[in-house]
Amino acid sequence: MQASFWKAGHPPTLFAAFLYFDVSFMVWVLLGPLGVQIAQTLEISPAEKGLMVATPVLAGAFLRVVLGLMVDRLGPKLTGIIGQVVVMAALGLAWLVGLSAFWQVMLLGVFLGVAGASFAVALPLASRWYPPEHQGTALGIAGAGNSGTVFAALFAPSLAAWYGWNSVFGLALIPLGIAFVLFIVMAKDSPDAPPPKSFKEYMAVLREVDAWWFMFFYSVTFGGFVGLASSLTIYFNDVYGMGPVEAGYFTAACVFMGSAMRPVGGYLADRIGGIKSLSIMYAMAAFFLIIVSFGLTQAWMALIVFACAMQALGMGNGAVFQLVPQRFRREIGVMTGLVGMSGGIGGFYLASSLGLSKQWFGNYQAGFLIFAILALLALVGLTGVKRRWRTTWGAAHMTAAKV
């Protein structure tokens, strides 16, 4: 990494943004890795399990817009502090009081959505400190915080087995508290903050057809990633009879592959063009989801196929955000919020549809197949718009980047 990068911005803020994003994503998907133990205690149905792990994802989707508006008015640091306090208070109350009913778990899931909305805080916090030539690197470092989903899958089931799943909510306060203190000490708002955007400005961009395309594209890539991250522990337990700890390890491996591939997807998009790389990712994701939908006889086979699907989806996330700033350069803040919201909606759909598929048909095939069809529809849509994109805003005389 060039030395000029570290001199160009504010490294302590960049690290604080990454750490805040990382621990927030860890607790955002916490109900997924704990889903097996929670379901056993509360005796909930497959559909309720799907809804339980999908609720934080949906709440986080809509709250990204709310926190985005707060960032414009209060600044990212204060907004981040408020968000962290809300999440820690909800986890602390759940730990002290205990959750004994399904509706209580769902209510906690809504508050965990605030952690998922950290996307709308961490990225502007880091981005505003860095000039255009270093934006990709800065956002790549801050955005690497989605790796927090790996820690949830890796440690939550084991901690639940040792101390009980309700105690995990209290234990999660330890990394959250450390990150909170470091965030207060290290994070600093950039003096070059853009003027606040109104809710009307958020809505104005929706008149652009391309905005809807990007929202749909990201609902498939990020939606697939976070939907699987929330659901795979339950899937491996239900289909292959794994214990929650072993199922969590398998999930963590898949999620790690998807998280690690996001910056690779952005790099590949820079080299061969976002449209071409994203087209490849959709085809790969659909292919592997179709394979897993028919069921695999061994858990290790499913692990390999899911890991491949997650890699494709993770790389697709990076490719989408290689294209968005080129098309919506002036509206990038608004588009980040709207596209991020759409990704959460896609994750809610996948996680909840897998639970419904299991309840209605006795297996997960329909849930996977429908999402694979959505990936193919995204591929068809991308094929349909690529010529127009490459001859208008993506033309060689309009941008130096490959589209």
UniProtKB/TrEMBL annotation:
GO terms for molecular function: nitrate transmembrane transporter activity. One of its GO terms (biological process) is nitrate assimilation. It is a multi-pass membrane protein. Its main location: membrane. The keyword Thylakoid does not apply. SUPFAM superfamilies: MFS general substrate transporter. It comes from Skermanella aerolata. Belongs to the major facilitator superfamily. Nitrate/nitrite porter (TC 2.A.1.8) family. This is Nitrate transporter. It is found in: Membrane. Residues 12-390 form the Major facilitator superfamily (MFS) profile domain. The chain crosses the membrane at residues 12-31, 51-71, 78-97, 103-126, 138-163, 169-190, 211-235, 277-294, 300-320, 332-352, 364-385. GO terms for cellular component: membrane. Keywords: Membrane, Nitrate assimilation, Transmembrane, Transmembrane helix. It holds the Pfam family MFS_1.
